[in-house]
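User: Predict the structure for this protein chain, please.
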Amino acid sequence: MASILVVDDDPISRATLRSILEGSGHAVEETVDGVQAMKAFRKTPFDVVITDIFMPEKEGVELVREMRQEFPGVRIIAVSGGSSSARFDSLDWIKAFGVRHTFAKPFDRQAILAAVDELLTQGA
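Assistant: Here is the predicted structure, written as structure tokens:
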């Protein structure tokens, strides 16, 4: 199956995604922010990246922009639990950066797996 990088500062979200993805045969690596994610991806490119939007150090949108610049074909899914300071829907505007699939937390197992499968078969 696929190698997937999960980027989220919330340990429960990371554990949930790991369980969903590994349960379907995917290999999963975790990082807690965009800085660590870029280091991990440069070392070992992954088939799919699933990133939270609101994180410390380097937020998801910064990560997406940097990844798109350095690795144009990267396949990215964005997730978010929202932010109390956000006045707009971050899941809609992040699509402008080339993210095809977005999910609000808590996420649906089948929807996440379907999105991963689609990205793997159709590309970025």
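The chain is about 40% helix and 20% strand.
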